[in-house]
Amino acid sequence: MPIAPALALMLTAASLPATQSFDLRPQSAERQRLYEKGGHGMEPGGDAQAFLFSVALPEGDYRVTVRLGDRRQAGNMTVKAEARRLMLNHVITRRGETIEHSFLVNIRTPALAPPPANAPGGDKVRIDARDAQEYTWDEKLTLEFLGRPTVQSVRIEPVTAPTVFLAGDSTVTDQYAEPAASWGQMLPAMLDDKIVVANHAKSGATLKSFLTDLRFDKLLSGMKPGDWLFIQFGHNDQKAEWPQTYADPATTYPAYLRAYMAEARRRGAHPVLVTSPERRNFDAQGKISDTLGAYAAAVRKVATEDGVPLIDLNADSRAIYEALGPEVAPTAFNDGGRDKTHHDNYGAWLMASAVAERIRAQVPDLAAHVTMPAFVPDRPPAASAVAIAPSLIRSDQRPAGN
After folding, report:
1. 358 CB burial (10 A radius; 0-12, 13-18, 19+)
2. pTM of the prediction?
3. Any idea what the CATH number is for the domain that residue 264 is in?
């Protein structure tokens, strides 16, 4: 019988690493130490205003507690983890004030348990060159401190927690470099520290490629009763010019959605379906043109017929873009708005806000853990009200699948 998600954290077994603490004040030895494999230290590229700190750890879930404050100056801290997953946004400390915040981070490697002799499968996820650039598929936990750093210390301890797994494409994944960003990497900042988000989405992915790349195997290997699986595909599945991964919206696409849902349910987890955000194509009347309608409709139909919670991000994205209008909406998109599919930090925050608001309404067991203020898609906040500190890593390369 599946465990009801009690959502109270428990320390994992003693076989996992013990709690570790690090002094990260500006003149500390830890701030002068460069990271070496198997140890801990600073990653290259940082300065006094932004830096990356890594700790070698086995894959799993960890509670990170940061102690912030400075007796000489005020602070304004943003903290991201791994591939730019937003954990804390604009935490203000007054001069002389000290505060603590904690959040949960999932880390992983490509490794899979090898299949038995003569059984099909593989012993690792098929990652590509871009994946290998990320602080995701490696042997360590990486934290990025941005803004006006006043961090004093970091404490890291292993935990077991209810997990929100994300399966999807480039509009969901943890984009590794500025200015591209996706809603999945903003979602952790909108949930409390009793929930961990494990974002397995991949740029260019389809329902079929997510299986053949063994990404779904990796996701399922960490799933436990009471977890959630959010499923959002469509942008690439609809590409008939990709014959090996094309999924017809009337037949194969809903069948694959149901297969994913069945695998989650078999493990006592709860599937949640998400419609894909629309592309930013305005018609002459200032309305968003439909490019994903058949796929969004298929998701809604499966959700209704199978009694699965629905996050209708397709509808919400259209409302957001139309509220911003043709002149302002490009400011929510990658590549200075030239990219009409992928978002920047502002757009990703808006998409994640819409997802979090739908969680409140559609996923009761998870709703209590949404911490962001109420969000109304047709009244989105201005970019100046969001203003997420940019990460250190930048790239002009568009996300795969564009």
Report:
1. buried
2. 0.94
3. 3.40.50.1110
